[in-house]
Amino acid sequence: MKVEKFPSTERDILTSLIVNEQVLSKVHQQMNGDRFLFPSRWSNLIARWCLDHFTKYHTAPKQSIQNVFSEWARTAKDKEAVELIEDLLSSLSGDYKSRAKDFQSNDYWIDRVSKYVGEAQLAKNIKDQQDAIDRGDLDEALKIREGFKKIDFSSKTLGNFVKREEVKETYTYLSEDRSLLKFPKALGEFLNEGFTRENFIAFVGADKSGKSYWLLEVLWQAVKQRHKVS
């Protein structure tokens, strides 16, 4: 029979991934393509089930983790591994039932996951570097070192459902000058931003208040700047 010890911190983090949607979403943003979160093979398997569940349903698996395990167990050839994971999940369930309120603090668990997984990733990177050195492959060792990226799911990073790439794209979009007409000087600073392709401009005012003057000015600026006008 397989015997494996799972550190209490690792057990707690697995439980938080299973039951806490906010924590899982943070990990999913940065680690969905990485199959190494923990030193333990079996902890990584359970974490992968959680990440796959979030990819498909955008929620934490909670009780559904048992269904995922059952599906996996039907075809698993290593019956001792099946028994080990079954015992682990049962134990995690007992931990959660006795400490349910402890797992509701999103920021606390996000910070704990960030620290633990970050340490595990760094330890693996150092081991991979040493393995490459032992093989006499210095270039590979340096490549592994340079490829290391610090893990940070912490509560100080961007919100749970906001990705850095999206923020960057939005910032770039808003920073671009997309105005179709360029009015001069201070008038341009006030008006240019509104004259973009996606905007609808209306001139509203009382009779004889200058609407036609402004429409003619817009037309004149468009002709000067070689835009098509009708």
Please give a handful of descriptors for the protein shown.
single chain; elongated; 0% strand; 230 residues; mainly alpha
Describe the structure.
The chain is elongated, with a radius of gyration of 28 Å. It has two domains: 8-157; 169-230, no CATH class. The protein has ten helices and no strands. It has 230 residues and is an all-alpha fold. It is 62% helix and 0% strand. The mean pLDDT is 82.
Task: Summarize the entry for a quick read.
The chain has 230 residues and is mainly alpha-helical.
Strand pairing plus helix content: what structural class? mainly alpha
Helix content bin: 55-70%
Describe the main β-sheet briefly: none
Shape: elongated
Strand content: under 5%
